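Quick bug: Ankycorbin-like output formatted oddly.
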Amino acid sequence: MAAPMSADALSSAVAEGNTPAVQYLLSQRVQVNVQSSDGFYPLCLAAFWGYSDIVELLLKNGAGINVCNSGTKWTALHCAAFQGHGKVILKLMQHKPDLQMKDAKGRTAADFASALDAIWPFFAAAGCKRTAKSELIRMEIVQKVKDIDPTMPQSDLAHFSRPGSAYVMRSQPLRGQRATDVQMAAAASGDVLMSSGEHRTASRTQPAFNMWRT
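Here's what came back:
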């Protein structure tokens, strides 16, 4: 069954970073915990794009901290950890997310955060144990540079932990598909306060998570 138009409208406004539109839709009692027709929850979209103010707004209006998208089963914390959005992670942690929740491949948000020094302290403070590199490789979160397709643009790679590392983050398809889905781009520069405008495509009406190939 298709999601209500209001759910799609809210998800589109969130993906565009249109705070006034989000505020208006919430004032019209649009349900905040309803997936769009693409299977995305507004909170997960806001977390992925790094819109910390919208994340806070959605949470104040009853967004479930542990809702997860279809396909990948990513929570908002998974999305923020993969992208390295420190300000979003801080706001999410204040609402006590379930740190044991796993995605469709059995990975927690802490597993993704383990690949990024800049955001790991948020998870360490919450009592998480950092996942070893060998496990990150097994989980397909990072891979060795020597295993990377040499034709892949260097701009499409995010280094593990520090510049010059022998490991890079792997791409993760949003809906858990590979051939038919658009790919996510990780904003893994290591800057906790990074601008939410980096590493994006021009249009976000229907989020286009580009660009790595897996």
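Actually, after a second look the formatting is fine. Strands lie at 142-144, 167-169. Closing.
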